[in-house]
Specification:
Number of helices: 13
Order of helices and strands: HEEEHEHEHHEHEEHEHEEHEHHHH
Distance between the termini: 45 Å
Strand content: 15-25%
Number of strands: 12
Radius of gyration: 21 Å
Mean pLDDT: 92
Largest sheet: 7 strands, mixed
């Protein structure tokens, strides 16, 4: 695959004053990605600064009373990157390492992701810097409700719709929906997606992101002339995304030979028993202790395979481990798992990367279906939802593949070309007010 245009250093005025220009973290990675796509935007490039500045960033204090009577304070964020194409859309994560830079980047990637699959949303993201494993269920509920009350002023079914992300789930969404509804004085099921089915959630939503990873992986394999049956799969992260993707590849006849989570990494050249591993994680919360060979992180990243799926956190594939990856393709189940430097190394080594903004867009696509169903109070079958999801993901990937071939750029740059063009066309047509 031919190389992309060289990186253009982001102009100083594109760097918000509250960030360190020498170490921008995830936001800096996103800025570099925008710089790479700018030469392909034509006359729309005059609007490119729009992409480099979040529309709105809210930092909130989240004080709660702990079970022992003490008062604890946590820092929360909600960032709306762009709403030119529709209301903000993006998850909420609870993690001890959440930062403003991270949430800003994730909100921007949501803008790109939503535009890449052409759902009528802008990009948003939220988070609380907290380790939920250290909270009781009651404390977790209080944190969720207080955070929701603090960001209540900028969310809503037509303004910004949160969803589950790292360490959040259907229950957290139910608490958020209830809190918002109590403050509004009426039940508002459309304020969040990823809710329980009983509260207006959508069938197929829980598996949607992992299913999208599988669909994109299958399409990419087809374009490379690679058979899924018998293909060796390596998965980093075995939560909702990684486990579902592993299950679907396993059912398609592939061999999941290595899996890593926050505690350990497992290896079996004959293929792990994925259903049994999923059941083990359900009961134990980790892959640790499952009957398979344990390997270290270095061995994990050097496992020879056809498809590598990073489905954990951002920044996992770096300049340090990219030269040693032995895969034909990388399917990004996580958000931002590959640094720009690693991207370049993988491209030079002719390893195809299906980027996060298309590969893990299944979740937001079915979130869109859920939102539409909530507005109409008419719900589709799981079969209908999966069919619609597969069609949208396949069409989006094929369009990105075509742009990649025409411009001789990576799939990531091709996805950004399509997405950024759609965002900036909307911005240009709407104009500036006042």
């Amino acid at each position: 695959m031919s190389s992309d245009s060289p990186i253009i250093t982001a102009s100083a005025h594109a760097v918000p004053s509250y960030l360190n220009a020498d170490n921008l973290g995830p936001w800096g990675i996103y800025l570099q990605q925008v710089d790479r796509v700018t030469p392909y935007l034509g006359s729309l490039a005059r609007w490119v600064e729009t992409l480099k500045r979040p529309k709105r960033a809210l930092v909130v204090d989240v004080p709660i009373e702990m079970d022992d009577g003490t008062i604890a304070h946590f820092e929360g964020y909600r960032v709306q990157h762009n709403t030119s194409r529709g209301p903000g859309k993006g998850g909420v994560r609870f993690h001890q390492d959440v930062t403003l830079s991270e949430v800003m980047a994730l909100s921007a990637w949501m803008s790109v992701k939503n535009a890449a699959v052409n759902v009528p949303y802008g990009g948003a993201k939220g988070g609380i810097r907290v380790d939920p494993r250290k909270l009781s269920r009651a404390e977790l509920e209080r944190v969720t409700r207080r955070y929701t009350s603090e960001i209540n002023i900028i969310i809503g079914p037509n303004k910004d719709i949160p969803a589950p992300d790292v360490n959040t789930n259907e229950q957290v969404m139910a608490w958020m929906m209830d809190t918002y509804s109590m403050n509004e004085g009426s039940t508002s099921t459309g304020v969040v997606t990823g809710k329980p089915i009983s509260l207006g959630g959508s069938l197929g939503r829980r598996e949607a992101t992992g299913r999208g990873v599988f669909v994109v992986g299958a399409e990419a394999a087809r374009n490379l002339g690679m058979e899924i049956k018998g293909a060796r799969i390596v998965v980093q992260g075995f939560g909702n995304v990684g486990s579902v993707a592993a299950k679907l590849f396993h059912e398609a006849g592939a061999k999941v030979i290595a899996v890593q989570d926050h505690k350990t990494a497992l290896f079996d050249p004959a293929g792990l028993d994925v259903p049994a591993l999923i059941e083990h994680v359900t009961h134990n919360g980790t892959i640790d202790g499952f009957r398979a060979e344990t390997i270290n992180a270095e061995q994990f990243w050097q496992t020879e395979c056809e498809i590598l799926i990073p489905a954990a956190l951002e920044g996992q594939i770096t300049a340090a481990n990219a030269p040693h990856i032995k895969a034909r393709m990388v399917i990004e189940g996580a958000n931002g798992p590959t640094t720009p430097e690693a991207d370049d190394i993988l491209r030079e080594r002719n390893i195809l990367v299906a980027p996060d903004v298309i590969a893990n867009a299944g979740g937001v696509t079915v979130s869109y279906f859920e939102w539409v169903q909530d507005f109409s109070s008419f719900f589709w079958t799981e079969e209908e939802i999966n069919q619609r999801l597969v069609r949208i993901m396949q069409e989006a990937f094929r369009a990105i593949w075509q742009v990649s071939q025409e411009n001789k750029v990576t799939l990531r740059t091709a996805a950004f070309i399509i997405a950024c063009t759609r965002i900036l066309q909307a911005r240009e047509m709407r104009g500036l007010y006042p």
